[in-house]
Amino acid sequence: MGSCKENQQENPQQSNCEFVQGPIIVGAGPSGLAAAACLSNHGVPSLILEKSDCIASLWQHKTYDRLKLHLPKQFCELPLMGFPEDFPRYPTKSQFISYMETYASHFSIKPKFNQAVQSAEFDSGFWRVKTQDFEYSSEWLIVATGENAEPVIPEIGGMEIFQGPILHTSLYKSGSDFRNQRVLVVGCGNSGMEVSLDLCRYNANPHVVVRNTVHVLPREMFGFSTFGIAMALLKWLPLKLVDKVLLLLATIILGNTDQLGLRRPKTGPIELKNATGKTPVLDVGALAQIKSGKIKVVVEGVKEITRNGARFMNGQEKEFDSIILATGYKSNVPTWLKGCDFFTKEGMPKTPFPDCWKGSEGLYTVGFTRRGLLGTASDAVAIANDIAQLWKTNKDCRSSCNSHIILLK
């Protein structure tokens, strides 16, 4: 099969095929925007394909109203442009979206929206990327769909007979929709804890399922960001020792969380995050509600959903009005990237951090480091530097070839 460029040369009337001079970027979230901005800074054009109708669609369409950044803004900035100085330490959802829109405008980034990539495959020296109604071709492909592209919906027996609503946190907006209800929250990560806290504000009665171990840390320690403290200590101390310091301080501030049904893993929070991607819960008030009894912790897993509630592994059954699945997200790369062994079956790069940003044959990834927006920024800079060198080499080669042709004439 020939490339899109070759097809266009053979059939210039073909209107559903386009050769892209620079890289094709799949995804217009923070990762895709950061990559495009860094490339633009080197004078390299790019094309972003986005399946939704806007940038940062996860933030715009699949997050709850009260969401704020979990980390201070200095750890969440994209390359080449920081947050406005008047933004608070932890920007709100609307402020982060505003930052993304300003970022895209500043770097003249104009994605092609409503272009859902159905397949991308390396063929005859080019990446062929097909959407529902078009085909694009380029020497480079940047996968920027990220770790959180699709909601994870667990298969729990009986879900089809439950009388109330069952929804993933990607569809949850506000506790006002669950006022005075008994709500089962399945999952105890940051989303599960914050949704439970939001439900309390509307006099709901949340029960959060904590089936596995979990690290809960205060968002701040003695007025300083816990994440910032960890980053500072890692410059001087071994990772395991930093974990011990964090856990000691967390116990002093929060108390023994094991007594609340929140058992800590044996592996420290930073080591666990680096190894598995499991993020510690940064507490913003849910722990106090657990201590007061307003949020009930259920340590048994859900065995099945019943008509009026749920039955747990210990045989106990409880009634609920609604069920919220705080079960996280997953990569969608395996559904569309074809003939490539760079990714695992779970859609994560096989090459570990910090070298996970570059594959072979012009393939790059941004936003798969398990290190949040800091990792995204690092990837984007590295990718742009690498492609810019190739772009300059190719440009010099083309100029040299053109000059040689002129001399021959």
How would you summarize this macromolecular structure in one to three sentences?
The chain is α/β, with parallel strands linked by helices and 409 residues long.
Describe the structure.
This protein has 409 residues and is α/β, with parallel strands linked by helices. It has two domains: 16-149 and 331-403, 3-Layer(bba) Sandwich (FAD/NAD(P)-binding domain); 151-328, 3-Layer(bba) Sandwich (FAD/NAD(P)-binding domain), CATH 3.50.50.60. Helices cover 31% and strands 19% of the residues. It has helices at residues 4-10, 30-41, 57-61, 93-106, 190-200, 226-234, 239-254, 269-276, 286-292, 372-408, and strands at 17-19, 24-26, 47-49, 117-123, 126-131, 135-138, 141-143, 150-151, 166-168, 182-186, 205-209, 216-218, 220-221, 224-225, 281-283, 296-298, 302-305, 309-312, 317-319, 322-325, 329-330, 363-365. The strands form seven sheets. The protein has a five-stranded parallel sheet, covered by helices on one side. A four-stranded mixed sheet has the order 1-6-5-4, with helices on one face. It has a four-stranded parallel sheet with strand order 3-2-7-22, covered by helices on one side. Helix 2 links the parallel strand 2 (24-26) and strand 3. Helix 2 packs parallel to helix 10. It is globular. The two termini are 34 Å apart.
